[in-house]
Design a protein that fits this description.
Helix content: 40-55%
Distance between the termini: 62 Å
Shape: elongated
Largest sheet: 6 strands, mixed
Number of strands: 10
Strand content: 5-15%
């Protein structure tokens, strides 16, 4: 089946991305939000910034960034090709049953990895957005929420980890400081994060900050309590695979855990396909490089042989010229009266010239000439 194709002008796409949130618009086109954003950047179409849609929801007019002229010819027309799931991924999703995972209000944390996460974040610190982070840096980066949202995030993590155990998905969290919690599905490692969405507002400088504005913060962040589960190492591809689930107007993330567990299998297949595709491209590049190197060597060998042959021809011609000169010299000597000393010197000249003629002539040293033409010189090693 041919993928869905949508053709529109650059101005039409600009109007759409400023009228509809990109996540929703991307779904209409059959793309991921990342894929649609890349298309917009490629065509020089600006996108709404942080807080734009919130301002519109509250009745404010945040204004738009004007559409600049295209940077080059050919960007006025945009073609969007919908992503498609491969047949094996579609078959997998069709045959797998979505697990039933619930998060009771009186959920008791008991999974070792949840308790370890809770312990690390209990003595953690807040980042510039007000979200908790452990003192050891990336040690618990699978949870990035505020202190108020931490109990709920830990309950979701607990339910998710139990669901992975039920599916017999292996969980790994090495002891190294920068190690990340991951789940192994079909021999593929999947990394994830439960994070809290924040709102950014421009920071209004105080009088003191205005005096040292170079060091003042530009934004104030407000936590929202809205949580999102995201697969963080899913490669960008043409496969329309869902990689994030978040709180919305009509659903809570707790209701999505079954879909998340089911999505891990599809994600692992995409990761495997991406690795295989990367290996295939690397092999193609290596083969292309090999063919180009062979072609370069052939060109160099051709040029070397041409140079050797031209040297042979030049030597052969010069040898003939020296021989003709010797013959002319001897004829001239018979027509002139020379002293004995002059004749001895003439004899020495002609013998030296014959030696030169022989050295110049590649035919006089034919075996060596054949070797010189046939075999390239070996590189010198110092």
């Amino acid at each position: 089946m041919n993928p869905k194709r949508t053709r529109l002008s650059r101005a039409e796409l600009y109007e759409k991305v400023w009228s509809t949130p990109i996540l929703q618009l991307a779904q209409d086109f059959g793309l991921s939000d990342v894929g649609l954003a890349k298309i917009c950047r490629r065509h020089g179409i600006p996108l709404p910034g942080l807080g734009y849609w919130r301002k519109r929801e509250t009745g404010h007019d945040p204004g738009r960034v004007a559409l600049p002229p295209p940077e080059r010819v050919g960007l006025e027309s945009v073609e969007i090709v919908a992503s498609q799931k491969p047949a094996d991924i579609l078959a997998y999703l069709a045959t797998q049953e979505e697990p039933k995972i619930s998060v009771p209000s009186n959920f008791t944390l008991s999974h070792p990895l949840t308790l370890r996460t809770e312990k690390l974040l209990a003595r953690g610190q807040r980042d510039e957005k007000g979200l908790l982070m452990p003192k050891e840096g990336g040690y618990a980066c699978h949870i990035h929420v505020s202190k108020d949202s931490l109990p709920r995030a830990l309950s979701i993590l607990e339910a998710f980890l139990r669901g992975c155990d039920q599916k017999q998905y292996a969980l790994q969290w090495p002891k190294e400081v920068e190690a990340r919690l991951s789940v192994s599905v079909m021999d593929e490692t999947i990394q994830f994060q439960i994070s809290e969405l924040t709102k950014a507002k421009p920071h209004i400088l105080t009088a003191e900050e205005q005096r040292r504005s170079w060091s003042a913060t530009k934004w104030n962040y407000e936590t929202t309590g809205q949580l999102r589960f995201e697969i963080t190492n899913l490669p960008y591809s043409d496969f329309n695979i869902r990689h994030s689930w978040a709180d919305g107007k009509f659903q809570r993330m707790e209701e999505c855990l079954g879909k998340i567990i089911l999505g891990l299998g599809a994600a692992s297949m995409v990761i495997k396909k991406d690795r295989e595709e990367t290996l295939r491209r690397q092999q193609e590049w290596a083969e292309q490089a090999r063919l180009e190197e062979e072609a370069r060597q052939r060109r160099e060998e051709f040029n070397r042989k041409a140079k050797v042959l031209k040297g042979f021809i030049q030597g052969w011609r010069e040898s003939r010229e020296v021989g003709e000169f010797i013959d002319a010299l001897m004829i001239e000597a018979t027509q002139q009266t020379l002293t004995d000393e002059e004749r001895r010197n003439l004899q020495s000249l002609t013998e030296w010239a014959r030696t030169l003629s022989k050295r110049l002539n590649p035919l006089a040293r034919l075996p060596k000439s054949i070797v010189e033409f046939t075999l390239a010189p070996r590189p010198e090693h110092w």
